[in-house]
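Quick question: what would this complex look like in 3D?
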Amino acid sequence: MDVIKINVNKQMDGYSFSITPSIRDFIKKLFPNAHPANNIFVGYDTKSDFEIYIAKLENHIYPALLGVDNESDLNQFDEIQFIDTQTGNILHKVTPRDEKI
Amino acid sequence: MSEFLMLGWNVAIPEVDIGDDIFVVQDDNGTLRRVQVKTSTSTARKDRFSGQFSLSVKNLRNISNILVHYIFLVRHNDEWSKPAIIRQDYLLDHFENNKVGAEAKGNITFYFSYVKGTVECSGQNFTTYIKDFTDFPKIEH
């Protein structure tokens, strides 16, 4: 399966994670019960607290953003890339089947 | 602005210009929509006319938790065309995945071609966006 690209936009008070409408349509076709979101906003303080006490935030963002929580469904994605919208740089990569959430 | 008022939404103009032209607000619960209006004069051709709009790539890629709705209008034969209303994420998707628009020096130029009530941009059919007030449902007061 193609790479899923998640846009990351750094704002004054936090990060906005979003996917494009074409990815939302693709997810809905693939998993009709999925409910992909437009975007998820996480404040900088929330992100740093989360990463100190729980785990890397991105690993919990993509199931919520894609609206897919079933592990076998998530494992169908080859790679999920978190991309800085302004620079185009890849900030983080996840291969769901290699991850334990 | 009058279209939004007719739909029951309130309209505010920002005191300081940092990009958004209008804030469209649902008074009773504070739902906010950011709106940027883009206008163009027309270039008339045989059976069609076109308009040209310029947008900053940086602004288009600046996806925040409140998305911008772009409204494109062309002045043709002393009348405004029907508004094409495109939400930021859809326009960015067209630009990045459908090769819509031409990028140069940090700006994207979109050419809209109007033919008998239809609109095209870089070969993509944009007619579906004409008067697309989906995100501004009518509010009864």
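Answer marked as accepted. Chain A has a mean pLDDT of 89.
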